[in-house]
């Protein structure tokens, strides 16, 4: 058993191939959080309801080409059983998943059905707990005000009871700004109850934004707030990047903010340059995701362009 656990730990901290059979326990399975800093993987939109073959191809690319450990899901696919395909693709590729319960941007109750479907698969698929590292409630649900913060905190606690025994962390993916606004009374209660902090880091939208190379103070402003207010919890930059172009959905709040491929590349170079700082931060270091895998999933943010080519050389540091 000790040998098996040592091999399993290597799954998330280095190279790995699937075991012949599904283990009986997650004990020793996941990499220690203190090793989860620097680049971890990609945000990946599932709005296209990709086939299992496409998921396997993309996940293998993330693992082998970029040495990613995780995929942070973004958007939603409401096809029944879709998360079973995600699990199979991740298991085959050797990736972990940060799953997502999608609220959308305008409210409504569809998220409840998505929550119930995700939990159904987590309990019925034998591989689920060996693939699912975390469950996120929403992508900026506090910022979009699609759910009352006290209700959201209760959902987090119920989810922790539901899947925590499987070794799965529960969190909310949102901006520091969302927790700081007076109109979000109760948001701090959410932060108090999550297992880990999934922080959105999008400095391009700051009123002080200029170029990506100059964005480190903006990054640290939000990181310092999270470190001060999250009681030492592990922090991941879950939705994190700088756009290469503007659109109706990507508009700056600073007249000096520059969106182009050079700045998108410069942003990730900047994160690599501060690898040692990330390693030393509260909670065992800060790990980051690149938002997003491809422009075909969300235009302007992809590392790949619409035609499937890399927009710039991308070999982020996974350790230092």
From TrEMBL:
Belongs to the glycosyl hydrolase 17 family. GO terms for cellular component: cell surface; extracellular region; fungal-type cell wall; plasma membrane. PANTHER family: GLUCAN 1,3-BETA-GLUCOSIDASE (PTHR16631), GLUCAN ENDO-1,3-BETA-GLUCOSIDASE BTGC (PTHR16631:SF17). SUPFAM superfamilies: (Trans)glycosidases (SSF51445). Glucanases play a role in cell expansion during growth, in cell-cell fusion during mating, and in spore release during sporulation. This enzyme may be involved in beta-glucan degradation. Active on laminarin and lichenan. One of its GO terms (molecular function) is glucan endo-1,3-beta-D-glucosidase activity. Its main location: membrane. It catalyses: Hydrolysis of (1->3)-beta-D-glucosidic linkages in (1->3)-beta-D-glucans. This is glucan endo-1,3-beta-D-glucosidase. It is a single-pass type II membrane protein. The keyword Coiled coil does not apply. It is found in: Cell membrane. It comes from the Eukaryota. GO terms for biological process: cell wall organization; polysaccharide catabolic process. Its EC number is 3.2.1.39. Transmembrane segments: none annotated. InterPro entries: Beta-glucan_modifiers (IPR050732), GH (IPR017853). Keywords: Carbohydrate metabolism, Cell membrane, Cell wall biogenesis/degradation, Glycoprotein, Hydrolase, Membrane, Polysaccharide degradation.
